[in-house]
Amino acid sequence: MIKLDVLEKMSTEEKYKYMLILLEGQLSSEKDIYANISNASAIIYAVMDKLNWSGFYFMRNGELVLGPFQGKPACNRIKVGNGVCGTAVSTKETQRIANVHEFPGHIACDSASNSEIVIPLVKNDVVYGVLDIDSPVLNRFTELEEKYLTKFVEKLNNYINWENL
Ligand code: SME
Fold first, then answer.
1. Going by CA atoms, what residue is nearest to atom 1 of ligand 1?
2. How far is the CA of 48 from the centre of ligand 1 (A)?
3. Where do the structural domains in the chain lie, given as residue ranges?
4. How far apart, in whole angstroms, are the C-alpha atoms of residue 164 and residue 79?
5. What is the pLDDT of residues 14-49, one digit of tens each?
6. Rounded to 5 degrees, what are φ and ψ at 96?
7. Ranges for the GAF domain (predicted)?
8. Which CATH architecture has domain 5-164?
9. What is the reported pTM?
10. What is the position in ligand 1's atom list of the atom closest to the CA of 74?
11. Which helix (H) or strand (E) segment is 94 a member of?
């Protein structure tokens, strides 16, 4: 069982380090990809405060399709180049958006979202999908969040063969 009560006494950076330990524990003890990515989205949602959505979209026949997530029901499909997620795919670069209402083409799945970070899942130059995290707080995601979420995705990449999804 994942132990979360210890989070209360931790600083923000300690929480993010613990988030990576929880992910390592999950990935090293379970082989099933869907169990792993489902709990990966739940670990982020449980550890990071002030979030309203965290989850995955995966490339299926040239577009992003919704994967495991935590939060309100979301858009099923996003075209490459559209919204924050589709832009992360077309640029192969993390999108850290302080105010989503100023992002041209932002797709509002939950009207509570005000800021967002999207990290593409890139392995050997191929984009397999994105990790998408939303917050109701403007400018929620700083360089610190980007640093640890990037490490989080690197760890997923080390363990998961996205081609088997
Ligand atoms: N806001 C995203 C859409 C996905 S939801 O946030 C879950 C976007 O603009 O791509």
1. 107
2. 18
3. 5-164
4. 22
5. 999 999 999 999 999 999 999 999 999 999 999 999
6. -115, 105
7. 52-157
8. 2-Layer Sandwich (3.30)
9. 0.97
10. 7
11. none
Ligand 1 pocket mutation pick from 116, 130, 140 by most atoms within 8 angstroms of CB:
116
Distance CA 63, CA 80 (A): 6
Q: Look up residue 48 and give its amino acid.
A: M
Distance 7 CA to ligand 1 centre (A): 28
Residues with CB under 6 A from ligand 1: 53, 74-75, 78, 83-86, 106-107, 109, 113, 116, 132, 134
Provide the strand spans (E) within the chain: 53-60, 63-71, 77-79, 95-97, 115-123, 126-135
- Residue 100 phi/psi, 5-degree rounding, is -65, -25
Protein residue with its CA nearest to atom 3 in ligand 1:
107
* CA pair distance 127, 148, nearest whole angstrom: 20
Contact 69, 99 (CB under 8 A): no
Q: Which atom of ligand 1 is nearest to the CA of 107?
A: 9
Q: Whose CA is nearest to atom 5 of ligand 1?
A: 109
The gap from C-alpha 155 to its chain's centroid, in whole angstroms, comes to 13
pLDDT in tens, 59-112: 999 999 999 999 999 999 999 999 999 999 999 999 999 999 999 999 998 889
Measured in angstroms, how far is the CA atom of residue 53 from the centroid of ligand 1?
Answer: 9
